[in-house]
Amino acid sequence: MSWIGTSPELPSIMLNAHTDVVPVFEEFWTHGPFDATKLENGDIIGRGTQDMKCVAIQYIEAVRNLIAQGVRLARTLHLTFVPDEEIGGHSGMELFVDHERFKALNIGFALDEGLANETDAFTVYYGERAPWWVRVKAVGRPGHGSRFVENTATEKLMRVIEKFLAFRQQQKSLLESGEAKTLGDVTTLNLTMLEGGVQFNIVPAEASAGFDIRIPPTVDLVEFEKQLGVWTSSEEGVTFEFVSKFENNQMTVLDDNNVWWKAFKTACDAQALTLVTEIFPAATDSRYIRQKSIPALGFSPINNTPILLHDHNEFLNEAVFVRGVTVYEHVLKSIGNVPPQ
Ligand SMILES: CSCC[C@H](NC(C)=O)C(=O)O
Ligand SMILES: [Zn+2]
Ligand SMILES: [Zn+2]
Q1: What dihedral angle (degrees, nearest 10) is formed by the CA atoms of 236, 238, 241, 246?
Q2: Is the ipTM of this complex over 0.90?
Q3: What is the pLDDT of residues 128-187, one digit of tens each?
């Protein structure tokens, strides 16, 4: 959906929302996850209430209200509703940013999803950690399960796993000691897959471990990859491969040269909103937009709300939701009138 500005030749603004949601475990929900039940206190329960039907609807409502008020913005707004974010965006935003139709939109700035904030403040995300999914493979001597077989794949794999997990502990300590402020500032690494073996009495010749690694944009990815090589090559017959690797992880710099950030912040200040700025701990479609050197902010106007995306009983209070529409009205008026640069 496009709302054409009075100066359509200027770089436009993209308001992005993904349309997919994650699955539910219905038995753990107090109300039907797709019923959108509203409780007495205004809490609306449903999958997607935070992630991110709310934002998609708020964009539309805010634009509708501005049009009703007779407002015209200088810049064109493009509301994009994209698939597959929850499974990596490979057939969604990742493809779209390379498409001619994306280039034709001439986007200068984008807003996309953020996360709820449990306090009165609102969180704005200016970058994300790069997701790397790595499979470590070990090969070793097979043999009969009743013998002391040497140099087995599983033993080697375990020693390498120890190295990965020691790094995990070190990063965890940085966060626990307060040296790193938020989850987005450290590298997380989790052993999420373990494969190997065909039968109890056969020592397997192969075994593998899968890691979900999330790397802050301040980390040198080339150096980090070298580190993975050092850990794995310490054992003969152990190698690693990328199942998924995100490169060129760009941040949107929040300084006085960033006119979009200034306009966004001015609108929030005028409403006396408290903003906190962070690196998004997981991955959203914003990473593909930033990869094209387009500044992007992750922002869901949800405060005083527990972070329940992907969780059971995801909810959003009606009052928070409605206020968010007003927040966008102010924000859109401000960013939509950023003068030509
Ligand atoms: C890495 S592609 C999958 C995307 C997913 N995004 C979120 C927000 O959960 C994630 O970070 O795991
Ligand atoms: Zn989302
Ligand atoms: Zn999600």
Answers
A1: -90
A2: yes
A3: 999 999 999 999 999 999 999 999 999 999 999 999 999 999 999 999 999 999 999 999
Ligand 1 neighbour 284 (Cβ under 6 A):
yes
Please tell me the pTM assigned to this model.
0.95
C-alpha triplet 314, 132, 93: angle, nearest 5°: 60
The amino acid present at 283, given as its one-letter code, is A
In whole angstroms, how far apart are CA 286 and each of 17, 23, 26, 125, 295?
10, 22, 30, 10, 9
pLDDT tens, position by position, 190-228: 999 999 999 999 999 999 999 999 999 999 999 999 999
Q: Say if CB 231 and CB 164 are below 8 A apart.
A: yes
Q: Ligand 1 in contact with 281 (CB < 6 A)?
A: no
Say how far apart CA 300 and CA 280 lie, in whole Å. Answer: 12
Report CA 52 to chain centroid distance, whole Å: 12
Amino acid at 302: I
Rounded to whole angstroms, the Cα distance separating 112 from 16 reads 5
Q: Which domains does the chain have, with CATH numbers?
A: 2-128+249-335 (3.40.630.10), 130-245 (3.30.70.360)
Which residues have a beta carbon within 5 Å of ligand 2, which is an ion?
51-52, 113
Predicted pLDDT of residue 280: 98
Cα(55)–Cα(46) distance, rounded to whole angstroms?
14
Q: Give the Cβ contact number of residue 146 at 10 Å.
A: 8
Catalytic residues: 20, 85
Q: What residues contact residue 296 under an 8 Å CB cut-off, 6+ apart?
A: 109, 110, 111, 112, 252, 286, 289, 290
Quickly tell me which residue has 């701990």 as its tokens.
281
What is the pLDDT, as a whole number, of residue 95? Answer: 97
